[in-house]
Specification:
47% of the residues lie in helices and 10% in strands. By secondary structure, it is mainly α.
Length: 205
C-alpha cells in the first residue's frame, strides 16, 4: 500500500509545499548563481529513472564555463569555485530536484539517479534500483554518500528497494538531515568521484 500509493502522494504534497515555502531561497540562490557563475542558472542532465526511463535532472549549476586556449572546458576542479563548493556542501544545488519530484520523475527518498552511461554495467540484481523512482536522497547516501565503494553503494540501493517502507523512508530522511547539517562525507567534486569509483569497480571485474 505504501509503495504503490502513499509514497507518491507524500512526495507530491511535500515537494509542492517545499517549492512554495522555499521559493525565497530558490530565488536568492538563482540570483547568486547568475551573478557568480553566469547562465544558464539551472544545470540539466539526462538520468535513468523508474524502469530506466530517461528524464532530465535539474540542479543549480556549480561550475563556470572556463575553457582552455583550444576552446575545451577546463577540468572540473578548475571550474568549481568556492561558491560552487558551498552549494554542494550544503546540498543547495539539489533544490531544483524538488521540481523533478513534483513532476513524478523522482521521489524524496530512493536510489540516487546515476549517469545514463552506467546502465549497461549493472548486474541483474543491481537493476532492481530502477524498480522504484530515484530519490533526492537515499540509503546509500546516508551510509557514506559518495565515498563508499560502488559495489557497496549499489548493494545499499537494492537493500532499500527490498525493505522499502514508511519507517525506512523516515529513517533515511532523519539521517539525511543529520548528514547535511554536520556536512559529513560530502564529495565536493561529485562527478569526478563517481567516475573514479566506477572506473575502479570495472577494473575489479
Amino acid at each position: 500500500m505504501y509503495r504503490r500509493f502513499i509514497k507518491r502522494g507524500l512526495d507530491l504534497i511535500l515537494s509542492g509545499a517545499a517549492l512554495i515555502v522555499l521559493s525565497p531561497v530558490f530565488l536568492t540562490v538563482a540570483l547568486l548563481v547568475r551573478i557568480k557563475l553566469g547562465s544558464p542558472v539551472i544545470f540539466h542532465q539526462e538520468r535513468p529513472g523508474y524502469r530506466e526511463k530517461i528524464f532530465t535532472l535539474c540542479k543549480f549549476r556549480t561550475m563556470t564555463d572556463q575553457r582552455d586556449e583550444n576552446g575545451e572546458l577546463l577540468p572540473d576542479a578548475e571550474r568549481l569555485t568556492a561558491f560552487g563548493s558551498f552549494l554542494r556542501k550544503t546540498s543547495l544545488d539539489e533544490l531544483p530536484e524538488l521540481w523533478n519530484i513534483f513532476k513524478g520523475d523522482m521521489s524524496i527518498i530512493g536510489p540516487r539517479p546515476l549517469l545514463v552511461g552506467y546502465l549497461p554495467y549493472y548486474t541483474e540484481r543491481e537493476r532492481l534500483r530502477h524498480t522504484v523512482r530515484p530519490g533526492l536522497t537515499g540509503l546509500a547516501q546516508v551510509s557514506g554518500r559518495n565515498f563508499i565503494a560502488w559495489d557497496d553503494r549499489l548493494a545499499k540501493d537494492v537493500e532499500y528497494v527490498e525493505n522499502l517502507s514508511f519507517l525506512t523512508d523516515l529513517r533515511v530522511l532523519w539521517k539525511t538531515v543529520e548528514v547535511v547539517l554536520k556536512k559529513e562525507d560530502v564529495a565536493v567534486e561529485t562527478d569526478s568521484v563517481e567516475g573514479y569509483l566506477w572506473d575502479e569497480r570495472e577494473k575489479l571485474r
